[in-house]
User: Which sequence fits this backbone?
């Protein structure tokens, strides 16, 4: 493994594409045999559920939070390998969650991927400024989500 | 130049009344009247269907219909024509109050009739009916006017909110569709069932959103027409509860009142929609296995519909705002709930259009109660002359009670 972590390559706007997903139930690991743990943060339980099913089927371990402040606590306690973060949430929004995670040395290096229904370029740019590793627009092709997660965790 | 006569239809089983009333109206100094006569309800209704009348004089004691049924039938046939009930015997203020409640403009005793009284009564009934209609329009305008001021900014806001909200069901459809297509054969039956349930729920939510947007659009284009009917509020409540039972199986719905012999004039579709919106809202704040209660109270002037939950309640400083457009209660305790905040706004508009009011209060023992009142003399028949004077006051005055 390289000693210096690669800078995350910025990729966004995958929404309309469709890729073939991988064979199910093969555990996703980072080369050291450790299963990749994904934190899913969205205020809509339906979205948390569908992302959870997709990720578990693809061999990821999933933890979730239904609002921003719970997300900050969850990520600080559980130290997942990657965070999927909604933007519009009732208490503190995804941008603020990202800012708090990037401001804390214990969570700074955990890659954050925004998964949002907000399509404006200004939102994508704001995500990038805050140090996010990616921005995926809802609705998204599951394979794109998985490819993005693998990309950011492989580069860790 | 002579005035065009006011066309009046007399429905009365006693042919002698035709002559008597014709004489009285001839004696009247004011507007000239043109009287036509039918001796049965059925022929009267037919007449109303085929020609236009300015007013109906109705005896409730008819060979083919008795009492309030006749009145109801005439109102349903010609909701725009004012009705003066004439009664051959003094059956007490109860019967008179009942007739006015249903929608008659006046109630007179035959034995006390004279030309000038009858002439004035008919003229006033027509005036009152028109004033009532104007007032109803006014209410409708007031209800919609306060929102229209926002204009273009609101419209953009609405489109953005809707577009954002539509992406949620789309995400769910796309996610599960891919999952089922790619892994359908490997998934266990429970996961598949779960996926299908989620798709169905997302579809329901989508339909709900579309309906809300359509309702809002109708309101904003001022196309909110009310179709008044006389209904039993209990039946409305049971219908709203049953619809919800089918939709949300994880919550119990209780109608806390029994059937009473109560009637109120309102637009049943709109008011049932308003009730459904309140129940839907209550469900959002009720956890699985929880209960939502529906009941109504009767006041002298209004019927009050209530929907109570045992959720976290509405914070005091939010209570005024919850009925605004796009308002969603959003804080740590509540989390955000699906929807773009149009439901309560639609409910409020429907209620205001009836001349009613809507409010949310803290429920005894915890939770929230959303209540709305619909005036019993809903605009029709209730206004004209002294605005403070209710039809009952007028009646009591007439009988010098």
Assistant:
């Amino acid at each position: 493994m390289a000693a210096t972590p690669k800078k995350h390559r910025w990729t966004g706007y995958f929404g309309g594409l469709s890729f073939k997903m991988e064979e199910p139930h093969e555990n996703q690991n980072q080369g050291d045999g450790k299963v990749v743990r994904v934190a899913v943060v969205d205020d809509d339980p339906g979205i948390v559920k569908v992302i959870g099913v997709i990720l578990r089927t693809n061999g990821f371990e999933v933890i979730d939070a239904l609002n921003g402040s719970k997300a900050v606590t969850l990520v600080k306690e559980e130290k997942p390998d990657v965070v999927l973060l909604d933007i519009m949430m009732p208490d503190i929004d995804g941008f603020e969650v990202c800012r708090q995670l990037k401001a804390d040395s214990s969570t700074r290096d955990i890659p954050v991927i925004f998964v949002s229904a907000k399509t404006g370029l200004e939102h994508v740019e704001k995500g990038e400024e805050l140090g996010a590793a990616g921005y995926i627009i809802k609705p998204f092709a599951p394979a794109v989500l998985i490819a993005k997660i693998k990309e950011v965790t492989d580069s860790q | 130049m002579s005035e065009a006569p006011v066309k009046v239809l007399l429905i009365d089983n006693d042919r002698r009344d035709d002559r008597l009333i014709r004489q009285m109206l001839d004696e009247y100094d004011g507007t000239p009247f043109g009287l036509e006569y039918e001796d049965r309800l059925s022929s009267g209704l037919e007449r109303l269907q085929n020609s236009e009348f300015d007013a109906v004089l109705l005896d409730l004691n008819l060979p083919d219909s008795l009492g309030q049924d006749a009145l109801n039938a005439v109102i349903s046939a010609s909701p725009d024509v004012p009705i003066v009930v004439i009664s051959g015997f003094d059956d007490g203020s109860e019967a008179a109050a009942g007739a006015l409640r249903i929608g008659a403009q006046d109630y007179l005793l035959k034995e006390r009739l004279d030309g000038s009284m009858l002439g004035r009564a008919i003229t006033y009934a027509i005036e009152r009916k028109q004033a009532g209609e104007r007032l109803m329009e006014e209410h409708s305008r007031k209800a919609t006017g306060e929102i229209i001021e926002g204009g273009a900014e609101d419209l953009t806001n609405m489109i953005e909110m809707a577009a954002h909200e539509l992406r949620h069901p789309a995400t769910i459809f796309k996610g599960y569709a891919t999952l089922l297509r790619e892994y359908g054969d490997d998934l266990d039956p429970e996961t598949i069932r779960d996926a299908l349930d989620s798709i169905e729920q997302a579809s329901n939510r989508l339909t709900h959103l579309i309906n809300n947007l359509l309702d809002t659009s109708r309101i904003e284009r001022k196309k909110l027409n009310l179709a008044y009917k006389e209904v039993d509020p209990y039946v409305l409540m049971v219908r709203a509860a049953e619809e919800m039972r089918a939709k949300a199986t994880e919550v119990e719905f209780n109608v806390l009142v029994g059937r009473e012999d109560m009637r109120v004039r309102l637009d049943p579709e709109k008011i049932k929609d308003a009730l459904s919106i309140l129940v839907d809202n209550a469900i959002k704040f009720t956890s699985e296995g929880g209960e939502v209660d529906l009941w109504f109270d009767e006041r002298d002037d209004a019927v009050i519909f209530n929907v109570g939950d045992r959720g976290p309640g509405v914070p005091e400083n939010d209570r005024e705002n919850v009925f605004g457009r796009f308002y969603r209660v959003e804080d740590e305790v509540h989390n955000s709930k699906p929807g773009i905040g149009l439901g309560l706004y639609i409910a409020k508009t429907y209620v205001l259009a009836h001349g009613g009011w809507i409010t949310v209060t803290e429920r005894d023992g915890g939770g929230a109660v959303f209540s709305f009142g619909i005036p019993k003399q809903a605009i029709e028949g209730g206004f004209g002359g002294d605005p403070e004077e209710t039809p009952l006051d007028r009646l009591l005055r007439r009988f010098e009670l």
Notes: The two ends of chain A are 10 Å apart (CA to CA). The first helix of chain A runs from residue 45 to 57. The domain at 37-154 of chain A is CATH 3.40.50.2300 (Rossmann fold).
